[in-house]
C-alpha cells in the first residue's frame, strides 16, 4: 500500500492516521475513499481553522456553511440558496468540459437544497490575452459555460473577467448559482432513519473524473498536466435538466428525506457526508450501481461521473420515487440502506470491500500551516509612484484604458449566455449587478461578483476588504440592501508559508469586513494549488454578494437614463493610483498600495445611495472601480446611449481626478430639482457630494481634458474585445 | 381559447410561455406532456424553446418522434393553431410542418440579445393587430437559427406572403448587418400555407412585460387570441 497512498496524494502521517482509525491496514477501496475525502479539495484541511473566524449568522440565515449551499430567508415564505465554487484545474486541462461541469456541479448544489436554480454568474481570470493559449482557454471556457447553462435553462446573468499574466497556465473559472425556494421545501444532505433506502438517481457511472478532487484539484500543475485529461469529467446538461425537474418534483411530493449531489469524490463523499451529518451509517452494494463500462469497486466509489444524485427515502416511498424518475427518463436504483452506528459498509457481489467510520471520512485531518509574510509585499508597497511622468493627453489615456483587456466590452462573453430565460432578469448583464425579479411579489434580488486580485496581491488584508466593500456597493448601486455573501478563495499551495500568509490575511480581511457590514458568509469554497511550474496566481478571493430589493421600482442600472439630469459623484477622490489599471496599462507596473478603505465612509456612501434611490432622487447609479471616474462616465454614457458634460476638479491632477480608483464612490444621476435634497442627504451622513455636470447630447465632454462621441466610445470598447479574442 | 404548452424532455421555455399566457394575458393554458397524443381540447399549441433531448443529433431531430408530434399533424389539418418558438420552430421544421432547415449561426456562437424585426405580413391570425412594416423589438437566444431553404421554396414563401418576420435595423431597413445568424433573406419567422402554423426564432414570451424591457411580443399573443374570438 505504501506506493499506492503516495500515488493517491496522501502523506505518510495521513496514512498512519487511517491505520490508527481502522486498527488495521486499509484495503485498496478504503484507501481510495480516504485519499479523495482527505484531499484538500474535499476536506479543507489547511483552511478549516482559518475559516472558523468568518461571521456566519444572522436572524435570517436558514443555513450557513457546511451544507451544499447557504440559504437565507427573504420573507413572504421564500428563501434564496446560493454558493460559489471553482473549476479551475479541470478548465485548465480541458476548458470546455471543465467549465461546463463546473456549472453542472454548482447548479446541483442549489437544487440539492430544494431550490430552483434561477441564475448563474461566472467570475473568470485568464492570462495574457496576446497568448494563443489564453484565447483558446477563454473561448473554450465561455463556450462550455454557455453550452451547459443555456441547455439547462438557467440564465447566466453576470460575473466578471480579468486578464493578468499570473493566470497564463492556471486560469480561474469560478461559478456561482442562486436558487429560490418556498421555505418549507428546504432539504438537507442528510441521511436518517435506519432501514431507509438509499437511492442513486441519474447518469450511469463511468471512469470519468477518477480522482478529480485529489489529483487535479489538490496538486499544482507541471508538464504532466496534459496527462491528467482523463481526470476531467464530461458534462451532460440534458440529464441535468431532467434531474432538476425530477428532484424538485420528488420534494414537492414529499417523497424524500435527504438529498445530496455527487460531485468531487463521488459516492464516497455523498454517502459519508450524508451519513455523518445524520449521525448514522450506510450500507451500499456497488453491483447495483448502473455502470457505463466495466469497473472495479475502487473506481466505482470514487468516480466523479456527473449528473448523479443520492436520495434517502422511506421504504414505502421508493416505488413512487422510482416512478417520478422514470417519468423524467432517469435511472433510479436502490443501492443500499441507512444503518445504525458510525459505519460505512461497501459490498461488491456480497463481499464486503470496505468498512470505515463515515465520520472519519467526512471530517478529515486538520492542519495549522505555517505562514510567513512574503518579502515582495513591502518592496512593492514602497514603490515611489509620485515621480511618474504622466502623459499630457488625457483623451488618449482614456482610449488606451477603454480598449485595454480589463476594461473593454464584455458583450462577446455575455451574449453567448442565455441571460433572459425564466423571465426574471430585469437588469441585464453589463451593469453593476444583475437584478432578478421574484415573480408573484414586488421583490427582486441583486447579485454581483467581485474580486480585484491585483489589490489582494499588493495587500491581502486590505484587498479582500475592498472586494467585500465593492461587492456590497455594486448591489447597493442596483437598489438592493446587501443580505449575505458567498465566496471562492483561489490561492497557490497552502504548503508554502508565503502563500498561506496571503490566505490568512485575506480571510481576516473578509471576516473583518463582513462583520463590519453585518453581512453573514453563508457558503463558500477554497481552491488551493493554483500554481504552475512553481509560480502561484495572484491571491484571488472572489466575493459573491446577494442583496434584496423590497420594491421592484427601486431597481437601478448604471445607464444614464435620459437628458438634462445632474451627474453627481458621491464620495471623495484621492491621489491614489497604486494597483490601478492606469498604472498597469500606461506605465506597465503593478505596484504601490491599493486604494485606502474607510469602512465607516463606505457604509455612509452606501446608505446615502440606498436612501436616495428609495426617495426616488437617484435615477441611475454606478460604482466607481477599475479605470476610475473617466471609465465609469464612459460606461454610463454608452449604456444609456446619451452624452454628458462634466467639469474638472481643479484641486487634483487630472490623472487622479479621472483614473484614481479611490473606494467608496458612486456616480449617480438625479433630476435638477432633486439635487438640493440629495446634497442635504449626503451632508447629513458626512458624504462628499460633487455635482459634475449634466447628461445630454451625444458626446461625452470632460471639460478641457477629453471629448468623444458616445457612439465612437461604444465602437472602441466593442472592437477592442473582438480584436482581443480574434488575436 | 385554450392553449397547450408542449413539454419535451429538455424544453426550458415552457414555464415562461405558460406564465405569460396565464399570468400576463389571463388565458386558459395547460402543460401538455410530449407523451400525450390526445390534444383535441386545445385550440392553440405552443412548442416552446429550449433543448429538447439536449439538441443531441440535431435540434428537434429527436423531439419530432414524440407521440404528441404525430397528433400535431392532424391538429393542424383541423385548422387549429400551432406556434413554434426557437427550439419549437426547429422541431416544426424537422417534422415537416414548415419548410426549410436550420443551420448553425454564422458566428458558430450562441447569441442572446434583443433584435429588431420587420413585420412583413399583417394579414395573418398571428399578426393582424400589427401593421406591415412595423418594427418589433424582441430577444433571440439560439445557436442554430440560421434559416435555410432552397430558392424554389423561398420564392413560394415570398409569393404567398408566408415570410412573417425579418431581422432589420431599428429603422426597419432589412440589412446584412441586422442579421444576427446569417439566415437567408434575414428570415426570422414563417407560416405554413394556411397560416395556422407559425415558426419563429425570436422569443415573444420574453417581450411581453414592461418590466423586462419590451412588450412587442404581446402583438403575437393578442393577435391569435383575438382571432380565436372571431376578430381579425
Can you give a write-up of this model?
The complex is a heterodimer of chains A (727) and B (232). Chain A is an alpha+beta fold and 727 residues long. Chain A has a domain at 556-727: Alpha-Beta Complex (Phosphoribosyl-aminoimidazole Synthetase, Chain A, domain 2). Chain B has a single domain (2-228), classed as Class I glutamine amidotransferase (GATase) domain (Rossmann fold). In chain B, the strands form 2 sheets. Chain B has a 9-stranded mixed beta sheet with strand order 2-1-3-4-11-10-9-6-7, sandwiched between helices. The model of chain B has no long low-confidence stretch (mean pLDDT 95). Classes of the chains: A alpha+beta (727), B alpha/beta (232). The interface between A and B is medium-sized, with 31 and 31 residues.
Secondary structure elements and pairings:
The complex is a heterodimer of chains A (727) and B (232).
Chain A: H1 2-7, H2 12-22, H3 28-37, H4 40-43, H5 48-51, E1 61-63, E2 70-75, E3 78-86, H6 88-93, H7 95-111, E4 116-126, H8 132-152, E5 156-163, E6 172-182, E7 197-202, H9 212-216, H10 237-252, E8 258-261, H11 266-278, E9 281-285, H12 297-302, E10 308-313, H13 318-327, E11 332-339, E12 344-348, E13 351-356, H14 358-363, H15 376-381, H16 394-402, H17 411-414, E14 425-427, E15 434-437, E16 444-450, H18 453-458, H19 460-477, E17 481-490, H20 497-517, E18 521-527, E19 531-532, E20 535-536, E21 540-549, E22 565-570, H21 581-587, H22 599-614, E23 620-623, H23 628-640, E24 644-646, H24 654-659, E25 666-671, H25 675-684, E26 689-695, E27 699-702, E28 706-709, H26 710-726
Chain B: E1 2-7, H1 14-24, E2 28-33, E3 44-47, H2 67-77, E4 81-85, H3 87-94, E5 101-103, E6 111-119, E7 135-142, E8 146-148, H4 151-159, E9 163-168, E10 187-191, E11 197-200, H5 218-228
Parallel strand pairs in B: 1-2, 1-3, 3-4, 4-11
Antiparallel strand pairs in B: 5-8, 6-7, 6-9, 9-10, 10-11
Amino acid at each position: 500500500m505504501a506506493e499506492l497512498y503516495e500515488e493517491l496524494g496522501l502523506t505518510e502521517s495521513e496514512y498512519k492516521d487511517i491505520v490508527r482509525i481502522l486498527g488495521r491496514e486499509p484495503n485498496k477501496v478504503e484507501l481510495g475513499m480516504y485519499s479523495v475525502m482527505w484531499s484538500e479539495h474535499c476536506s479543507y484541511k489547511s483552511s478549516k481553522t482559518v475559516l472558523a473566524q468568518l461571521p456566519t449568522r444572522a436572524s435570517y440565515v436558514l443555513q450557513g456553511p457546511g451544507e451544499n449551499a447557504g440559504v437565507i430567508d427573504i420573507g413572504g415564505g421564500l428563501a434564496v440558496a446560493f454558493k460559489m465554487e471553482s473549476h479551475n484545474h479541470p478548465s485548465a486541462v480541458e476548458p470546455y468540459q471543465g467549465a461546463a461541469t463546473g456549472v453542472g456541479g454548482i447548479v446541483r448544489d442549489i437544487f440539492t437544497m430544494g431550490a430552483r436554480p434561477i441564475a448563474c454568474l461566472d467570475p473568470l481570470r485568464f492570462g495574457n490575452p496576446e497568448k494563443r493559449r489564453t484565447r483558446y482557454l477563454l473561448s473554450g471556457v465561455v463556450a462550455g459555460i454557455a453550452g451547459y447553462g443555456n441547455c439547462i435553462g438557467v440564465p447566466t446573468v453576470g460575473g466578471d473577467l480579468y486578464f493578468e499574466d499570473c493566470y497564463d497556465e492556471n486560469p480561474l473559472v469560478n461559478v456561482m448559482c442562486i436558487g429560490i425556494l418556498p421555505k418549507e421545501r428546504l432539504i438537507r444532505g442528510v441521511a436518517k432513519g435506519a432501514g431507509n433506502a438509499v437511492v442513486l438517481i441519474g447518469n450511469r457511472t463511468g471512469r470519468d473524473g477518477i480522482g478529480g478532487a485529489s489529483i487535479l484539484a489538490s496538486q499544482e500543475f507541471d508538464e504532466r498536466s496534459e496527462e491528467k485529461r482523463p481526470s476531467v469529467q464530461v458534462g451532460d446538461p440534458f440529464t441535468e435538466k431532467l434531474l432538476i425537474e425530477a428532484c424538485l418534483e420528488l420534494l414537492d411530493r414529499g417523497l424524500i428525506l435527504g438529498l445530496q449531489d455527487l460531485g468531487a469524490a463521488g459516492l464516497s463523499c455523498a454517502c459519508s457526508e450524508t451519513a455523518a451529518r445524520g449521525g448514522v451509517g450506510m450500507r451500499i452494494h456497488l453491483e447495483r450501481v448502473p455502470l457505463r463500462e466495466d469497473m472495479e469497486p475502487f473506481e466505482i466509489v470514487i468516480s466523479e461521473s456527473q449528473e448523479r444524485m443520492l436520495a434517502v427515502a422511506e421504504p414505502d416511498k421508493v416505488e413512487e420515487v422510482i416512478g417520478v424518475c422514470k417519468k423524467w427518463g432517469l435511472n433510479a436504483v436502490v443501492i443500499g440502506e441507512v444503518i445504525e452506528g458510525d459505519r460505512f459498509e461497501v459490498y461488491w457481489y456480497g463481499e464486503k470491500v470496505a468498512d470505515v467510520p463515515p465520520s472519519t471520512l467526512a471530517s478529515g485531518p486538520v492542519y495549522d500551516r505555517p505562514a510567513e509574510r512574503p518579502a515582495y509585499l513591502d518592496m512593492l508597497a514602497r514603490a515611489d509612484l509620485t515621480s511618474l511622468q504622466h502623459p499630457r493627453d488625457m483623451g488618449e489615456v482614456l482610449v488606451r484604458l477603454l480598449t485595454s483587456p480589463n476594461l473593454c466590452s464584455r458583450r462577446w462573453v455575455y451574449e453567448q449566455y442565455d441571460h433572459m430565460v425564466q423571465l426574471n432578469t430585469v437588469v441585464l448583464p453589463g451593469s453593476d449587478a444583475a437584478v432578478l425579479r421574484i415573480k408573484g411579489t414586488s421583490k427582486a434580488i441583486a447579485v454581483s461578483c467581485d474580486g480585484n486580485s491585483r489589490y489582494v496581491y499588493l495587500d491581502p488584508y486590505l484587498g479582500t476588504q475592498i472586494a467585500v466593500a465593492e461587492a456590497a456597493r455594486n448591489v447597493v448601486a442596483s437598489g438592493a440592501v446587501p443580505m449575505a455573501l458567498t465566496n471562492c478563495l483561489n490561492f497557490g499551495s497552502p504548503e508554502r508559508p508565503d502563500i498561506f500568509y496571503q490566505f490568512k490575511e485575506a480571510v481576516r480581511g473578509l471576516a473583518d469586513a463582513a462583520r463590519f457590514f453585518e453581512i453573514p458568509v453563508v457558503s463558500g469554497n477554497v481552491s488551493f494549488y493554483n500554481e504552475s511550474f512553481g509560480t502561484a496566481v495572484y491571491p484571488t478571493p472572489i466575493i459573491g454578494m446577494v442583496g434584496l430589493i423590497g420594491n421592484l421600482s427601486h431597481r437601478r442600472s448604471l445607464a444614464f437614463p435620459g437628458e438634462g439630469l445632474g451627474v453627481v459623484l458621491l464620495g471623495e477622490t484621492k491621489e491614489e493610483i497604486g494597483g490601478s489599471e492606469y498604472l498597469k496599462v500606461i506605465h506597465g507596473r503593478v505596484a504601490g498600495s491599493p486604494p485606502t478603505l474607510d469602512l465607516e465612509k463606505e457604509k455612509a456612501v452606501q446608505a446615502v445611495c440606498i436612501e436616495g434611490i428609495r426617495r426616488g432622487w437617484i435615477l441611475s447609479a454606478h460604482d466607481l472601480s477599475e479605470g476610475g471616474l473617466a471609465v465609469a462616465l464612459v460606461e454610463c454614457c454608452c449604456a444609456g446611449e446619451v452624452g454628458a458634460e462634466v467639469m474638472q476638479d481643479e484641486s487634483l491632477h487630472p490623472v487622479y481626478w479621472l483614473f484614481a480608483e479611490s473606494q467608496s464612490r458612486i456616480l449617480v444621476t438625479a433630476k435638477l430639482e432633486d439635487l438640493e435634497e440629495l446634497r442635504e442627504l449626503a451632508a447629513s451622513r458626512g458624504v462628499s457630494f460633487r455635482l459634475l455636470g449634466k447628461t445630454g447630447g451625444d458626446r461625452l465632454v470632460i471639460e478641457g481634458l477629453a471629448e468623444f462621441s458616445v457612439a465612437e466610445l461604444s465602437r472602441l470598447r466593442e472592437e477592442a474585445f473582438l480584436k482581443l479574442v480574434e488575436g | 381559447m385554450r392553449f397547450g404548452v408542449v413539454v419535451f424532455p429538455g424544453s426550458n421555455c415552457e414555464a415562461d410561455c405558460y406564465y405569460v399566457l396565464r399570468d400576463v394575458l389571463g388565458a386558459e393554458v395547460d402543460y401538455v406532456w410530449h407523451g400525450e397524443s390526445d390534444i383535441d381540447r386545445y385550440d392553440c399549441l405552443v412548442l416552446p424553446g429550449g433543448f429538447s433531448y439536449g439538441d443531441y443529433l440535431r435540434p428537434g431531430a429527436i423531439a419530432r418522434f414524440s407521440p404528441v408530434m404525430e397528433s400535431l399533424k392532424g391538429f393542424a389539418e383541423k385548422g387549429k393553431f400551432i406556434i413554434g418558438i426557437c427550439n419549437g420552430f426547429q422541431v416544426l421544421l424537422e417534422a415537416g410542418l414548415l419548410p426549410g432547415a436550420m443551420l448553425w449561426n454564422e458566428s458558430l456562437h450562441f447569441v442572446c440579445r434583443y433584435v429588431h424585426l420587420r413585420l412583413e405580413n399583417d394579414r395573418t391570425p398571428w399578426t393582424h393587430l400589427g401593421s406591415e412594416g412595423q418594427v418589433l423589438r424582441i430577444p433571440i437566444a439560439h445557436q442554430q437559427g440560421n434559416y435555410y431553404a432552397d430558392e424554389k421554396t423561398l420564392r413560394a414563401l415570398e409569393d404567398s406572403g408566408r415570410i412573417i418576420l425579418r431581422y432589420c435595423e431599428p429603422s426597419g431597413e432589412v440589412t446584412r448587418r441586422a442579421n444576427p445568424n446569417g439566415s437567408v433573406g434575414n428570415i426570422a419567422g414563417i407560416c405554413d400555407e394556411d397560416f395556422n402554423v407559425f415558426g419563429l426564432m425570436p422569443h415573444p414570451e420574453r417581450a411581453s412585460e414592461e418590466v423586462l424591457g419590451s412588450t412587442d411580443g404581446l402583438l403575437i399573443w393578442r393577435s391569435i387570441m383575438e382571432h380565436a374570438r372571431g376578430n381579425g
